[in-house]
């Protein structure tokens, strides 16, 4: 592989710092610092200046006659290396820029009471994530429309995936050395977010791809339109500066030059104010800024973009949600909407502990070279029959299930919606057009061997997110309920066994893998099940679906135009509206959903 010199790398990093300094100055010049500098009324108020909120704010303010206010609970990032340099990604997790939302102990996993990393910063989780930029398979998004959400299908979303993206192909040397393929026509050429490949890719990544191929797992020509099999994935990296490309730099900074766009950081929204009528209208937002409680008015709409944890929390505090919950907490009921906080999904995952004696970093790489390499560049998304010898019996068991394994507090409407989902999900489990397991590898350095992770993509289990008091500053009860449906665990066991088989391929054996002592003796399915119960995590930081699209009588919270059922002037545009979690890391999908949401609000669709 052709290596970049340390000198070139240092120049790139210096260029990045200068570019970010200039962007920071441009942003600071127009960002509102005090509430008394705001207008008393805006056309649109967006709650949350994260990934989706900044997309919608940017697109709405393209019309100079439209005024928009974004209220963000966090501050701006500090522009440090930990935020922008690819090799440092993950360093900001657990910092003051991270909500670190606690979850409650689960029924199955002993390690399920984790803290969920969520961006509390302008740019949201796009400022903290590992920059993986991939899409789900077409079947994932067609499933959304199959549930009754008209217009939410692969064909329609593809144009918004492209709209959000500027794609830069891999280097010629990478195409040659790694046999990388791509289809430029599947990507965007002028979107705000850069999708590119780091200049340096760890050579062990080739072993990962070849090991999959040797088991009959094909390489996708380009995951952008066929995210099944193994593939090299792009990252959200600006190829010029070799730094993180995220919602702040891509959407906020250009919009910040517009006089009709305001963003107020350190503004914690406490509730939405609605008129007292048969169909209440959202007309105002209450928030706290610098220890003051303030209200600002919206002429047209209030748009929730607070994310899959905080959006249902704000709705419930507003009086929109399950009536029993709200009455028990003495929160005045405005709209009885039992689906708020229900249908909670993520990708439960587990790291398989192996050491590798022959993993190395090329001698020609310097420390600065490593800083412009990401932690991993290949993923594998597998349909059930590609890794599970028990596919037929597991699906038959699913179709014969009499129970739902939902929370006993689940409303009948939500149960009805889940039953419809389960039928559809089992058809995806039985298809080669949709993946149910991700196999990923990270941290491919000489200091730490590859971290091998398997992650369940289309679980049947459902969690819930519910407020526990009227206090808007208290975290809601986040209950993943991972693996409560026993069939999810059966797939995870098969994924574990597949990983063991994969590590025995000749390509992976070149890395000299060795099982950790804790799993070396695991042979029976029951032994593996017990190990997974102690070591799996309920999350891959892909929280979603808690205010999902769907019919109101089936537990839906928003309609196909993302309007909250039973209200006027209130929409949701973040990951909570997804009815089913796609088989992908969520970043690119959230951008596409938000881009389409902006067109819906503007009346283009």
From TrEMBL:
> Keywords of this protein's UniProt record, alphabetized?
FAD, Flavoprotein, Signal
Q: Which example biological process does GO assign this protein?
A: secondary metabolite biosynthetic process
Glucose-methanol-choline oxidoreductase N-terminal domain location? 119-142
Question: Which Pfam families does its entry note?
Answer: GMC_oxred_C, GMC_oxred_N
Q: Which cofactor does it need?
A: FAD
Q: Which SUPFAM superfamilies match?
A: FAD-linked reductases, C-terminal domain, FAD/NAD(P)-binding domain
PROSITE patterns, A to Z: GMC_OXRED_1 (PS00623)
> What's the protein name?
Similar to Glucose dehydrogenase [acceptor] acc. no. P18172
